Amino acid sequence: MGVALVWFRDDLRLDDHPALRAALDRGLVPVPVYIHAPDEEGAWAPGAASDAWRRRSLAALAEALAQRGSRLLMLHGPSLGTLQALAALTGAEAVLWNRRYEPHIEARDTRIKRQLRQAGLHAESFNGSLLFEPWEIETKQGDPYRVFTPFWKNALAQWRLRPLWEASARLPSPDQAGAPDGRHLDAIVPETRPDWDAGFWDEATPGEAGARARLQAFLAHGLEGYAQARDRMAVDGTSRLSAHLHFGEVSVQRVAAAVLAAEVPAPDRERFLAELGWREFAHHVMHHYPHVVDQDLDPRMADFRWARPLRTTLDAWERGRTGVPIIDAGMRQLWQTGWMHNRVRMIVASWVTKHLRLHWRHGARWFWDTLVDADLANNTQGWQWAAGTGADAAPYFRVFNPVSQAMKFDPQGEYIARWLPELAALPLPARFAPWEHPDLLRRLAPRYPRQPQVDLAQGRAAALEAFAALRAGREG
């Protein structure tokens, strides 16, 4: 039998895996290989939280392959040289993988594909991550979209569910191809220092089985009522599938098919599918405008007067010590769990880019290092949306009021009390804006900051003044 290297990347599953399926359909012995080469990812090498998740996901994939009679070869880069050496050792005739869409990785993979083909190997990539390839949806003029609603309307008109695929209970062994042993997981993604990520795993289980379990739990308990519950911070009203989707532990096709088949009110189903649509849109924008991972999509913001970042300001924000409870609760949740509720992400991002008037890159970098679901397209476009600099962005003059947002989406202050236990004794009005109740704050929460980093009204006014100055400069 012939041999194919199946190069696993951010597709750490077996079911609905196009590259693995292609190898098996062609009668080839698949040699599953993972190559750890973070230095090839440019300025956006994986952060610490991502690596913590990846380590457990790789272990789960290795176990799943072993149960099927196969095994995962875990190796270090460089990717091209490693693939070439492994192909020569095993006599592989093909190298198959599922595509990634980060600009630096796209360019690298293009070079790898070209050089493998020049060496006489069959090199082929597949869509294993998205409902649509980023280049498949375009305007009537043949241009990429910059606004979500028409993008998603067009996408829905073209959408056809693909057949799902289950991997066989037994897979051919790479030993048939003389594959080497590879390296131990500890040599690929070292274990984190004791207990650093312990809180991550209270509600999350990396790997394909964990992803399937989370999907089933969401279908059973979270999809009905999702349209309203998704914004409620204190309830388990979101799917919590973001990290599983980012690492490819479950296919987006499987998630979409399950949601479409669920017997729930149409608004709940449509609202969740639209969230998948935003994920598609972020990848669409990143593919067509690759500079957005570091620069504003809207060139008119290039001359905006951002504030100079002070380390003390960033430290207070990163540690959840801004003095604004909903901001600090979100930042504490992020640090302790590697995840933050989406509504809180928007409030936090608005605080950083509007009230503190810091460039979105500062926030995006911290999220990149601390989120287990850190995805380059979603992360940078989410921050640009909040900052008013990206595609279909909230206008810069839209400034979230963190107090009113907390009162609306955490009306009983439960989310705040959970992540800021030092404020749990405060009555509700004080829990949202403790600086307005100095006596209560001093008596019941003496260690919490007495004032916000910046006065809310003054911060908003300064942001609007800077935006007005930008407009005046353009029009002058």
Automatic annotation (TrEMBL):
GO molecular function: deoxyribodipyrimidine photo-lyase activity; DNA binding; FAD binding
Chain positions of site Electron transfer via tryptophanyl radical: 306, 360, 383
Domain of life: Bacteria
Stored Gene3D superfamilies: 1.25.40.80, DNA Cyclobutane Dipyrimidine Photolyase, subunit A, domain 3, HUPs
BP GO annotations: nucleobase-containing compound metabolic process; response to light stimulus; response to stress
UniProt KW Flavoprotein keyword: yes
Pfam family, one: FAD_binding_7
Cofactor: (6R)-5,10-methylene-5,6,7,8-tetrahydrofolate; FAD
Binding site residues for FAD: 226, 238-242, 272, 373-375
UniProt entry keywords in alphabetical sequence: Chromophore, FAD, Flavoprotein, Lyase
Record's cofactor remark: Binds 1 FAD per subunit.
Residue ranges occupied by any Photolyase/cryptochrome alpha/beta domain in the UniProt entry: 2-131
Family recorded in the similarity comment: Belongs to the DNA photolyase family.
Protein name: DNA photolyase FAD-binding protein
Organism the protein comes from: Pseudoxanthomonas suwonensis (strain 11-1)
